[in-house]
């Protein structure tokens, strides 16, 4: 095999990895570039180009797949600017899913080390492995957002906003407000759901399942009701004014933290409903809501920017 055969083989391997309409032009350009570089190397070495020289040069030039990638348009599924956001959303989502799954798995009675290993095995097979759907959903979502930004670049244009402007549309905030109102109604009397859908003809066992315990009614319920009502007032004020004043933001964050504390107290304290199955469902829901709320507050704190010099670096 002579030098020309080595070059032709390399160029063919590169071109084979390119779109058909691009192959001939790239092969012509690449062969001319390699020939010129090899000729310069041969003149500097004071000898003719041979197969060994061509092979050594091409190995330093790069693998055919790497060289083809220089000519081929890059396939970007997730925009590089969204890389950290994607990683953060993946880690937070998996942490919540795994934590909730572990807490549910630990509800099983554990009397020995073998029982603990069995619980951990069920958690791994039933929660950790299936949870990989979450990164898949994020890849699809971020990929669609990146494609949309390239397809309609004007939608991704930066627009200045003040720190007090409400995030998201008012329609989304109104939906959130409606959700909180429904939560208050359910908290006041959960059995109205049965009357609404079944017109009072639901089975007695269903009404029993949605009956609060006396301890919850006298301990956590008043706190939850008051905090939800305050949230409704704050959201309504933000929707009407179209802005989050700094003082209002701090007050809403403090309310959310207190609400998380009360929800955690509810989960860890006695039963909420008289039926164990209903009690387990509502406590799991409260736990998920608590973790999601704390994650949202943590993200806001992490993303907060307060311009100030790094005095340690200056020193």
Notes on the structure:
With 315 residues, the chain is mainly α. The chain folds into three domains: 3-71, no CATH class; 76-159, no CATH class; 162-315, no CATH class. It is built from 15 helices and no strands. It has helices spanning 3-15, 20-45, 51-61, 64-71, 83-105, 113-128, 133-151, 170-188, 192-198, 204-209, 214-218, 220-241, 246-268, 276-303, 311-314. The longest helix has 28 residues, at 276-303. Mean pLDDT is 81; it is low at 158-163.
Brief descriptors of the model:
0% strand, mainly alpha, 315 residues, elongated, 3 domains
Query: Helix content range of the residues, please?
Result: over 70%
- Structural class of the helices, strands and pairings? mainly alpha
Biggest sheet features: none
Low-pLDDT runs of 5+ residues are: 158-163
Q: How large is the share of residues in beta strands?
A: under 5%
List the helices and strands and how they pair.
Layout: H1 3-15, H2 20-45, H3 51-61, H4 64-71, H5 83-105, H6 113-128, H7 133-151, H8 170-188, H9 192-198, H10 204-209, H11 214-218, H12 220-241, H13 246-268, H14 276-303, H15 311-314
Summarize, please.
With 315 residues, this protein is mostly helical. It is 73% helix and 0% strand. It has 15 helices and no strands.
């Amino acid at each position: 095999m002579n030098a020309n055969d080595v070059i032709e083989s390399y160029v063919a391997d590169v071109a084979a990895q390119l779109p058909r309409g691009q192959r001939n032009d790239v092969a012509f350009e690449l062969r001319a570039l390699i020939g010129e570089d090899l000729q310069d190397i041969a003149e500097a070495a004071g000898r003719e180009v041979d197969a060994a020289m061509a092979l050594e040069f091409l190995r330093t030039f790069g693998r055919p797949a790497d060289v083809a990638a220089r000519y081929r348009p890059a396939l970007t599924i997730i925009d590089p600017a969204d890389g950290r956001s994607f990683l953060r959303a993946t880690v937070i989502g998996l942490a919540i899913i795994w934590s909730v799954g572990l807490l549910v798995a630990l509800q099983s009675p554990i009397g020995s080390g073998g029982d603990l290993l069995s619980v951990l095995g069920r958690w791994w097979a039933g929660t950790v492995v299936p949870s990989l759907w979450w990164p898949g959903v994020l890849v699809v979502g971020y990929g669609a957002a990146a494609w949309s930004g390239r397809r309609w670049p004007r939608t991704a244009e930066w627009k200045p906003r003040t720190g007090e402007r409400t995030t998201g549309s008012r329609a989304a905030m109104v939906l959130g407000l409606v959700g909180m109102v429904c939560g208050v109604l359910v908290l006041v009397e959960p059995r109205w759901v049965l009357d609404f859908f079944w017109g009072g003809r639901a089975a007695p066992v269903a009404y029993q399942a949605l009956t609060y315990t006396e301890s919850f009614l006298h301990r956590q319920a008043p706190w939850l009701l008051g905090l939800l009502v305050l949230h409704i007032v704050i959201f309504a004020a933000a929707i009407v004014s179209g802005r989050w004043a700094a003082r209002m933001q701090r007050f809403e964050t403090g309310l959310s933290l207190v609400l998380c504390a009360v929800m955690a107290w509810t989960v860890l304290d006695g039963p909420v409903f008289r039926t164990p199955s209903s009690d387990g469902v509502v406590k799991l829901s409260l736990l998920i809501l608590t973790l999601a709320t704390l994650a949202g507050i943590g993200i806001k704190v992490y993303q907060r920017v307060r311009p100030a010099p790094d005095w340690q670096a200056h020193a």
